[in-house]
């Protein structure tokens, strides 16, 4: 099974680090420019441009692909569910949570375009012509779409276009170019895409489970502590944990009081408050550790 992965750009490093954390270490090879093996002999990697990955998966050059939803939408769309997928469609298997951005319609701040209908008969420049035409159909506006391959933000200032459809995340690029958002076109993040014919393959399910376990571990911590057996109920009230904490008998303390070891998964943002509450109910030797993967 082959996974297409961005070869450069902002998605390259986070994708390799996800594969690593999921246990799919990518082997260093001389020709890593194009293909690489992983520690799993059944899984190999194809490096490609983020924009080309949807096409590589459709064509069968790869079985799975990791790229932005914006790229998949531009290359022919993604149905809402696997059951609606035709054989040329991509199935959106999993939101991997990074590369979050928006495609927006934007126009010069001080211009006369303030709603999308002002663009009737106008021109929109974009790197996403298919998504833009779909959007125009949806809102019922008739505008020309010009395709550019970069520096889209400049086009309204050199009379090439009245507005643009482009990626934004912090909004800095739009601001610097004195452009204001007129409408949201598409919310995007990086997804794991598959061809419909591989969705039920056990290997694909194994990859999905591995990625899910990394996502589930994100933002959670593993707490370990000792507590007096007599106060276990109070400790449990403080840490509801994932399906309840694990409790093990340990040796009694010097005074002969029964002790237990308590282990639990907690949300990272609860750790700070939880620790003082645990101390208050008699817990000691509290350890907080990171979780690499969590299979729920
Ligand atoms: N500013 C951003 N914030 C978050 N995600 C972004 C941002 N810009 C792009 N992305 C996401 O990353 C994907 C790829 O963009 P990136 O800039 O890494 O590649 P690229 O511009 O195609 O690189 P190159 O042209 O060097 O191959 C986009 O399709 C989008 O999903
Ligand atoms: O809202 P912001 O945080 O400013 O991000 C938006 C910018 O990020 C992307 O460009 P990128 O940095 O990938 O450069 P590129 O045009 O060379 O791809 C995108 O094309 C926008 O220009
Ligand atoms: Mg870019």
TrEMBL record:
<keyword id="KW-0368">Histidine biosynthesis</keyword>
<dbReference type="InterPro" id="IPR015867">
    <property type="entry name" value="N-reg_PII/ATP_PRibTrfase_C"/>
</dbReference>
<dbReference type="InterPro" id="IPR020621">
    <property type="entry name" value="ATP-PRT_HisG_long"/>
</dbReference>
<keyword id="KW-0460">Magnesium</keyword>
<dbReference type="GO" id="GO:0005737">
    <property type="term" value="C:cytoplasm"/>
</dbReference>
<feature type="domain" description="Histidine biosynthesis HisG C-terminal">
    <location>
        <begin position="217"/>
        <end position="293"/>
    </location>
</feature>
<feature type="domain" description="ATP phosphoribosyltransferase catalytic">
    <location>
        <begin position="49"/>
        <end position="211"/>
    </location>
</feature>
<dbReference type="InterPro" id="IPR011322">
    <property type="entry name" value="N-reg_PII-like_a/b"/>
</dbReference>
<keyword id="KW-0808">Transferase</keyword>
<dbReference type="InterPro" id="IPR001348">
    <property type="entry name" value="ATP_PRibTrfase_HisG"/>
</dbReference>
<dbReference type="GO" id="GO:0000105">
    <property type="term" value="P:L-histidine biosynthetic process"/>
</dbReference>
<keyword id="KW-0067">ATP-binding</keyword>
<dbReference type="GO" id="GO:0003879">
    <property type="term" value="F:ATP phosphoribosyltransferase activity"/>
</dbReference>
<dbReference type="GO" id="GO:0005524">
    <property type="term" value="F:ATP binding"/>
</dbReference>
<keyword id="KW-0479">Metal-binding</keyword>
<comment type="similarity">
    <text>Belongs to the ATP phosphoribosyltransferase family. Long subfamily.</text>
</comment>
<dbReference type="InterPro" id="IPR013820">
    <property type="entry name" value="ATP_PRibTrfase_cat"/>
</dbReference>
<dbReference type="InterPro" id="IPR018198">
    <property type="entry name" value="ATP_PRibTrfase_CS"/>
</dbReference>
<keyword id="KW-0547">Nucleotide-binding</keyword>
<protein>
    <recommendedName>
        <fullName>ATP phosphoribosyltransferase</fullName>
        <ecNumber>2.4.2.17</ecNumber>
    </recommendedName>
</protein>
<keyword id="KW-0028">Amino-acid biosynthesis</keyword>
<keyword id="KW-0328">Glycosyltransferase</keyword>
<dbReference type="InterPro" id="IPR013115">
    <property type="entry name" value="HisG_C"/>
</dbReference>
<keyword id="KW-0963">Cytoplasm</keyword>
<dbReference type="GO" id="GO:0000287">
    <property type="term" value="F:magnesium ion binding"/>
</dbReference>
<comment type="function">
    <text>Catalyzes the condensation of ATP and 5-phosphoribose 1-diphosphate to form N'-(5'-phosphoribosyl)-ATP (PR-ATP). Has a crucial role in the pathway because the rate of histidine biosynthesis seems to be controlled primarily by regulation of HisG enzymatic activity.</text>
</comment>
<dbReference type="Pfam" id="PF08029">
    <property type="entry name" value="HisG_C"/>
</dbReference>
<dbReference type="Pfam" id="PF01634">
    <property type="entry name" value="HisG"/>
</dbReference>
<comment type="pathway">
    <text>Amino-acid biosynthesis; L-histidine biosynthesis; L-histidine from 5-phospho-alpha-D-ribose 1-diphosphate: step 1/9.</text>
</comment>
């Amino acid at each position: 099974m082959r996974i297409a992965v961005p070869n450069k750009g902002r998605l390259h490093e986070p994708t390799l680090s996800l594969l690593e954390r999921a246990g799919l270490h990518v082997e260093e090879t001389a020709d890593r420019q194009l293909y690489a093996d992983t520690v799993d002999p059944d899984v190999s990697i194809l490096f490609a441009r983020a924009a080309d990955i949807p096409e590589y998966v459709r064509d069968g050059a790869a079985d799975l692909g990791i790229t932005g939803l914006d790229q998949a939408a531009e290359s022919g769309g993604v149905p809402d569910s696997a059951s609606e997928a035709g054989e040329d469609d991509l199935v959106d298997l999993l939101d991997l949570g990074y590369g979050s951005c928006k495609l927006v319609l934007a126009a010069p701040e001080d211009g006369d375009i303030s709603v999308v209908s002002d663009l009737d008969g106008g021109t929109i420049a974009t790197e996403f012509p298919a998504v833009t035409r779909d959007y125009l159909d949806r809102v019922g506006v008739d505008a020309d779409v010009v395709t550019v391959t970069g520096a889209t933000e400049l086009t309204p200032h050199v009379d090439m276009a009245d507005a643009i459809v482009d990626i934004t995340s912090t909004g800095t690029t739009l601001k610097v170019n004195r452009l204001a958002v007129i409408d949201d076109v598409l919310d995007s993040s990086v997804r794991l895409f598959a061809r419909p014919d591989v969705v039920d393959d056990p290997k694909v399910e194994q990859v999905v489970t591995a990625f899910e376990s990394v996502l589930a571990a994100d933002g959670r911590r593993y707490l370990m502590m000792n507590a007096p057996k007599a106060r276990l109920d109070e400790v449990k009230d403080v840490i509801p944990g994932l399906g309840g904490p694990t409790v093990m008998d340990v040796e009694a303390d010097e005074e002969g009081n029964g002790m237990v070891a308590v282990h639990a998964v907690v949300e990272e943002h609860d750790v700070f408050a939880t620790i003082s509450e645990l101390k208050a109910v008699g817990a000691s030797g509290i350890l907080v550790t990171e979780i690499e993967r969590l299979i729920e």
